[in-house]
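fyi for ur records
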Amino acid sequence: MNQNILVTGGAGYLGSILVGRLLQEKDNTVDVLDCLVYGCGGLVNYLENSRFRLIRGTILDREHLKSLLKNHYDCVIHLASLVGEPLCASYPKVAMEVNVQGTKNLLEACKKAERPPFFLFSSTCSTYGVSKGYAEESSVQNPVGVYGESKVLAEKEVMRYPNHVIFRNATLYGLSARMRLDIIPNQWVRDATLGRDLEVFEPEGLRPFIHIQDCAEYFAKCIESSRNVKRKQVFNIGECNTTKRALALVIQEYFPDIEIKIVEKGDKRSYSVDFIKAKEEFGYFPKINLYDGIKKLKEDISCIDLDNPIYDNLKGFKDEYFRKN
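which gave:
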């Protein structure tokens, strides 16, 4: 099925994987809108592809969005945002402006399009914050910090748009052309590779995880079935739940000389998530489990400059572009 797709934030960690997956379908055309704060990621590989176009811009530019959405898009995949609590806590005003107002700007442009497109929004399981038992899509959201709060507010904007689906993603990990080394397990595998002990805070805190390839596949499955998928739906996207202590022990199995050190920090998030709704809707079960994913990450990560700040969302961030707009 031929699809004309716009991906915001497509040069990012997930976008760099997802764009390549979407272009595997030979009838798809993919435009990416990204302000390129962290560079082009893996998109340089597609610049000569006639079915791909890279557009530099920001979702804060309403006039640009209005002009862009005059093109007929069947689907908009909205990934663009400030991601992660350290970054959002350091730039709370920018985070709220981009994550909430930027989402609202994009939705307004979609509504004014001649044929309003299907809208797939990338949110996060972090919106559950602290929960007991398995959080389902209908569970109360209890965000801890600016990042989760901004995503809850953005979701409310999306829910006003009738032709939408929201994905709440588990913590992603795995290799990407626009790599992130500021999230576990990536950070801990990096540290172990460099011979550093694993510093674990809130060791009994529960987190959901999914390999980035599997997450991208869920997005692709949703777009492929966009004419049939239920509208106004929220789906939790993930593969497993585990404590941070258990995750560290998995990594230690592959790096037996590394010690695990419990440290005091302030992140109190602890939540486990139910993923069955997405599995049933899209008929897809993640193919990479946590053990295999960690093993593959250990093999892949050696090709990266492991101390490059560009792979850290906070250290590599520059807000000058947003101040100009």
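The chain has one domain: 4-324. thats all i got for now
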